[in-house]
Amino acid sequence: MTETPAARQLAAAAVDLFYRQGAKATTVREITQACGLTAGSLYNHFVSKEELLYTVVRDMHLGLEREVERAQSAAPDPTGQLIAIVRVYVDQHARHRKSSRVANVEYTLLNAERRAEIVDIRRRLRDRLTSVLLAGQATGAFDLGGDAFDGADRSTATLVATAILDMCVHVSAWFHEGRPLSTAELQERYVLLALRMAGS
Fold it and tell me: What is the CATH number of domain 56-197?
């Protein structure tokens, strides 16, 4: 994204409109009007509405990946890493509800190349948690299924990782701070759920 105040203003307005009515139904004119700008001013910063959507979606995913990497690197073992990743996911999807929801729903509207880039980031995040779960299984910290899944292989760990992350991602669909939980309280509830899902 062009790092100018106007570009950031356009992105913020787009997120609000995409969240409320979907990217497909949102016009360039609506985005620029929300900023008090002329319709043509968007093209000084973005080639198209699709590029604006891509920028919002990419920035949210890359920001989440950076936060996950940072939190995981500070944790000493698989249990701590699982806790750290869940806390980041819940925090990001609770505090940045609109941009998270837009990023997780509207990325499917991107062109094939851009959509593939986003899918790759999402896959990296899932695979990171899968590796944490497998490491925890190897040390005995986690039990990913036992007889029910005929042993805990990578496909089982991937299934558990996907379920945990999907649970956290959907916080953005319903959560409001203080009704009835704070973000910190929600993080702790989700950590407990994730640990149970991992067989801790």
Answer: 1.10.357.10
